[in-house]
Amino acid sequence: MDAGLLAAMTTGPLRAFLDSDLCGQAIVVVQICMSVASWAVMSERILHLRELNWRASRFLGDFDRQSDPIALYCRGERLSDAPLENVYRATCDRFASLIPEAQRARLRVDPGAPIRLDAVRMELVESSCAHATDEETMKLGRGMTALAVFTSSAPLLGLFGTVWGVMLAFQTMAASGVADIAALAPGISSALLTTVVGLVVAIPSTIFYNVLQSKVEAQTVRLEGFAEDLMGKLSLHYRAAGTEG
Prior knowledge:
By secondary structure, the protein is mostly helical. It has nine helices and no strands. It has one domain (20-238). Helices cover 82% and strands 0% of the residues. The longest helix has 58 residues, at 181-238. The chain is rod-shaped and about 95 Å long.
């Protein structure tokens, strides 16, 4: 047998795991599964939010270059499944549904045509915009709850495993009638393993949770700002004269 493998089996975390009882081993296995799941969530969220940021910058650049807020929609521009574009699509769909078909056809040809909506219809458009914004905000936070659960529960599982292991270690020592460190050390080592694994899970999860939360909040602020800007431009271009929001 390889000397390194033999050493790992006689000392270190593997030895502590093998010396643990079924409960302690089960806790370590659960913690390892939580670690794998947390890294999967963190990796997916980081890549997803990075892509959303790129898409948002590109879309805002296109949107800001238009003289009319629904020009992209009327031209049938391909919109991706990203938060800003989903809000834009839902708002424009609602706007288009509230004007007569003849005027809708005119908009496709001439965005910015003199079409006006009264205050009631404009409020319906604003309501659709707000609803879409809320839905997209909820999507941005996907996975964060699971990450928070892993962050908080892994150390608690570790603490439970440690208390359980220490209790068994003292019971074993009492049953053997031998009160020395050599008899107690294996049990204590196994007991502390769950705390170590719990911290290994919780520390990176906590760091990445805070980083991801700040990115989600930044995307949320950007999304809400775009929704307000979109409604402001729609009101400026299409609200009927003499009506109030």
